[in-house]
Amino acid sequence: MIKKFIDKLLGKSGDAAQGGKARFGKRQEVPASVHGIDPALVDERAKNVVTTLQDAGYEAYVVGGAVRDLLLGLRPKDFDVATNATPEQVKSLFRRAFIIGRRFRIVHVVYGRGREHEVIEVSTFRAYMDSNGAEQVAGNERTSKGELAGMKHAVDASGRVLRDNVWGPQEEDAARRDFTVNAMYYDPASEIVVDYHNGIKDSKKLTLRMIGDPITRYREDPVRIIRAIRFSAKLAALGFKLEPKTAAPLVESSKLLADVPQSRLFDEMLKLLQTGHAVATVAQLRKLELTTGIYPLLDVVVERADLPFVKAALQDTDRRVGEGKPVAPSFLLACVLWADVRDGWAQRVEGRHGQRAQAAFPALQDAIDDVFNARIGDVSGRGKLAADMREIWMMQPRFDKRTGATPYSLVEQARFRAAFDFMRLRADVGEVSEAIAEWWQEFSTADEVRRQDLLDQVRDEQHKRPRQRVPAARAPAPAADEAQLPPDGEVAAAAPRKRRRRRKPRSGGEAGSSVAAE
Question: Would you tell me how many other CB atoms lie within 10 Å of the CB of residue 29?
Fold first, then answer.
């Protein structure tokens, strides 16, 4: 009894006092005849990383979500590898390998170049560290940067882990992972799955269960709350459900997210929306009663998810991911916030609320600035994110002009495809004429002769009908496919700006500008 009291004072649990065996689980080596993983589903580059490490004398396994997906008969999108080699030892074995991260130091082994490159993420087995024994700092990652520089294991005042770079055995590495179905290790050579926490059993039961006490695990890293949402949304279509004990503390624990840096929350929000399950994520947030409080911009997404324009954008993003096409956050966020830009633009042009009426172009710029300040704030990557979103929005009025040199110069813009996809979504929900969307679709892919025909058609139509003045602040509707950068060949490459032609090309002459062909 005295020993238990002393262990409690020292921050040791009953399991830890007994050697930690219950906490770390029992090692089970499950053969291929039982788990049934198809070796053909394993990425050759991941196999190469594992083999290279094993040949050098280290332990190495495919780990995490890839093993879970393999057990379910799915081809994993990403492959991670876990090893007992340190990041420096891993880096020394590969020609293109880079150590990244401070909180968790890992290695990215890169295969290929350009858009087609593939990254295999390699992590070193980490020791299971009791937060009571970690060094503590009063601030966070930013305010305590100097103190954290020399620390391997540190927490803040709330118990949130700020550094976790203490290496340990595989059994401890498994215990510090989040869900049982993400804590299995697969050796492609022997085809054995190593399982410490009944991950295979939970996979068959379609259960998402947190390893250890959920409240403690959420306190150690509140981002696990967002991961619980993401995985439950991703696996919902397969029938997976959060175990009641894992789900119960989510709402109360979500308050801990206030201490997480905004830049990290922003990145986690993008993972929720850009991994191919955006619609399911919104449904899961509503089901778990977490529609507000995770991140302000995510609150807006959930609030507007049923609006035709935003709904179309979410569905289109999921479709692109499912087809293996790239997506960019600027496009989806531009769609979500378009209503704010549109309304603010119209308000300035019309001079509402006693304001002085503005010209259309500066009114649109000011409306965009207000939306950035109110909705985006100071987050990681805002510079490029804001620039891409601004271009998408600023191009929308230009689609109304289909005469002279404007169409030629517009299709040469680097973000033309994203802006066109945005306008296309607006047309789908009735905010823009379907005929205009079809005209630009054909013009962007046509040869020079056909382009001239299209311009002539517009000119003839304008001559046949009386000219009507269109309100300058006519706003476009919600959009869809974002500044997601189109894969090679899907969209024609933009012509070099220095060769932009603003003159009307000679009839019958050579093509005046290089445009992207879809």
Answer: 12
Residue 52 has, within 13 A of its CA and on its CB side, a CA count of 19
Q: Mean pLDDT, to the nearest integer, of 21-49?
A: 91
At 372, is the secondary structure helix, strand, or coil? helix
Does pLDDT of 46 surpass 60? yes
**320: Cβ contacts below 8 Å, ≥ 6 apart:** 326, 327, 481, 484
Tokens of 428: 């789908």
Q: 3-state DSSP call for residue 480?
A: coil
State the burial class of residue 195 (Cβ atoms within 10 Å of its Cβ: 0-12, 13-18, 19+).
buried
pLDDT of residue 155: 66
Structure-token pair, residue 297: 């911009």
Name the phi and psi angles at 199, rounded to 5: -65, -35
Q: What's the pLDDT tens digit per position in 443-502?
A: 999 999 999 999 999 988 888 766 555 444 444 444 344 344 443 334 333 334 444 444
DSSP code of residue 307: S
* Cβ proximity of 412 and 516 under 8 Å: no
Residues sharing a CB contact under 8 Å with residue 453, sequence separation 6 or more, in sequence order: none
Q: How many CB atoms lie within 10 A of CB 64?
A: 25
The helix-helix angle for 382-395 and 360-371 (nearest 10°) equals 150
| C-alpha distance from residue 457 to each of 7, 22, 272, 402 (Å) | 85, 77, 45, 10
Confidence of residue 127 (pLDDT cuts 50, 70, 90): confident
H helix intervals, 293-415 = 296-304, 308-322, 329-336, 338-350, 360-371, 382-395, 406-411
- The whole-model pTM stands at 0.76
> Tokens 């390998």 correspond to what residue?
97
Structure tokens at 201: 């059993």
Is the pLDDT at 6 greater than 80? The verdict is no
125 neighbors 175 (Cβ within 8 angstroms): no
pLDDT at 10 over 60: no
CB of 239 closer than 8 Å to CB of 206: yes
Number of Cβ within 10 Å of residue 392's Cβ equals 28
Identity of residue 191? E
Q: What are phi and psi of 191, to 5 degrees?
A: 60, 30
So what's the pLDDT on residue 77? Answer: 87
Residue 159 has what pLDDT? 62
Q: What do you get for the CA distance between the two ends of the chain, in Å?
A: 75
Beta-carbon contacts of 289 under 8 Å, excluding residues fewer than 6 positions away, are: 251
Looking at the DSSP bridge assignments, the partners of residue 184 are 195
Q: Which residues pair with 192 in a beta bridge?
A: 187
Which amino acid, 236? A
Positions marked active-site: 78, 80, 178
